Amino acid sequence: MNTAPLQGIKVIDFTEVQSGPSCTQLLAWLGAEVIKIERPGVGDATRNELQFDPDCPSYYFLQLNSNKKSLTLDAKTPDGKEILTKLIQSCDIFIENLHPGAIDKLGFGWDAVHKLNPKCIYGTIKGFPVASQYSSLKAYEPVAQVTAGAASTTGWYEGDYNIPTQSGAALGDSNTGMHLTIGVLAALAQREKTGEGCYVYQSMHNACLNLCRIKTRDQLTLDRIGYLTQFPQYPDGKFGDCVPRSGNTEGSGVLGWTYKCKNWANDPNDYVYVILQRGAKDFELACHALGFDDWLTNPNFNTADARDKHKNEVWARIQEFCITKTKFEVTELLSKAGVPVGPVLSTKEIMTDPHNYDGNTLVKIDQGGKIGEFVTVGVPFTMSNYQPVYGPCPDLGGNTAEVLKSYGYTDQQIAEFAKNGTTSPMPKETSAPDKKA
């Protein structure tokens, strides 16, 4: 029995780079047939971006396009428009992430597609909501982060590095793709009731803002009382009218921080994150594990509110505890007492940990040929009755003939499409050599 959730669902993937492909790759891993439309002779922009070998597609492309089929198609040519029309008429989902106005100019905006196939779900990714004053901006990952409150609340809160800082996580790109996936799956469930597809619009800005929800919570609190007790600036610093940067504080009611461990001078990631919870019993267990039993009777530390007012002293003493141990030793000692704690792991440590190769967390895909095996992040959730099969990425146009034949095109027609620029680049004109006098 095939338990793939999206078995039988056909997706036309008119996206490139990261935000759109991250969505369509997840749909493919869940069992959908995903046909990726790529520019003849060029392909997705990430194929040739940050390459490790000039003859191979980049890991950027490989990590976002597993299990898809590649159809090279210039949708601006008459034949290209006809082919794309046929694809849309037979698909369940059409997804695009072109710049604003481009898909409408091409003739395949929501209204046009809905007329061609009323059952088709139309997913689109743009930088900003339609009503946004910034809707005309060209949106990249950092643009989404700086306009959605992520950058202004990330980074250090004093000194030379007190500048808005973007996250290492792709809050504007892959996060947007995941948000669109939710919307598309909701639309599929809705179609079961209505029989009709709908338009799912996802902006990078809103996806990023959704992950900054607690910062809007902090703004409400700041507007109400003028300070934020969980921030390093409390109680001695001054608060302005907006949520400030907070360094490595945990950000909610508990007291968390990142501490140096004994090899920090040689290892930039020999750090550990330790959290002191607010509950009296939890705090007591933490004190026993840290050897800080005197805190249990000290009015500066024996209540959560008191600890908020003496953060620097708390941080300094826990730092003394951590600096004589490795991050793994601190983690083992404190976790036994139920203290929330975790080592700061580098990408190298994560990718060489065999426990992460559990079938979903990290997966190895055999691309074959010169590339061989590569690692990527798998489906972020697990299902009790379904295990994704992680297959290779397609060669540029590697499925063009296969797809076109499935739509009834003959070998002669396919050859003509390649000659007229529909599926292959038009040959460059060569100037005739000068005649000698």
Secondary-structure map with pairings?
Elements: E1 10-14, H1 19-29, E2 33-38, H2 59-62, E3 69-72, H3 78-90, E4 93-96, H4 102-106, H5 110-116, E5 121-126, H6 141-147, H7 174-194, E6 199-203, H8 204-211, H9 213-225, E7 255-260, E8 271-276, H10 280-290, H11 304-309, H12 311-322, H13 327-335, E9 341-343, H14 347-351, E10 362-366, E11 373-377, H15 400-406, H16 411-419
Parallel strand pairs: 1-2, 1-4, 2-3, 4-5, 5-6
Antiparallel strand pairs: 7-8, 8-9, 10-11
Helix pairs in contact: 1-7, 6-8
Structure description:
It is a single chain. This protein has 437 residues and is α/β, with parallel strands linked by helices. The chain has 2 domains: 10-211 and 355-419, 3-Layer(aba) Sandwich (Rossmann fold); 255-339, formyl-coa transferase, domain 3 (2-Layer Sandwich), CATH 3.30.1540. The chain contains 16 helices and 11 strands. α1 packs across α7 and α6 (141-147) packs across α8 (204-211). The longest helix is centred in the middle third of the chain and has 21 residues, at 174-194. It is elongated. The mean pLDDT is 96. It comes from Duncaniella freteri. One of its GO terms (molecular function) is formyl-CoA transferase activity. Keywords: Transferase. This is Formyl-CoA:oxalate CoA-transferase.
Total number of helices: 16
The CATH topology label of the largest domain is: Rossmann fold
CATH class value of the largest domain: Alpha Beta
Low-confidence stretches: none
Shape: elongated
Oligomer: single chain
Name of the CATH architecture of the largest domain: 3-Layer(aba) Sandwich
Number of domains: 2
- What radius of gyration results from the CA coordinates? 27 Å
Strand order of the largest sheet: 3-2-1-4-5-6
The CATH homologous superfamily of the largest domain is termed Crotonobetainyl-coa:carnitine coa-transferase, domain 1
Helix content: 25-40%
Structural class based on helices, strands and sheet pairing:
alpha/beta
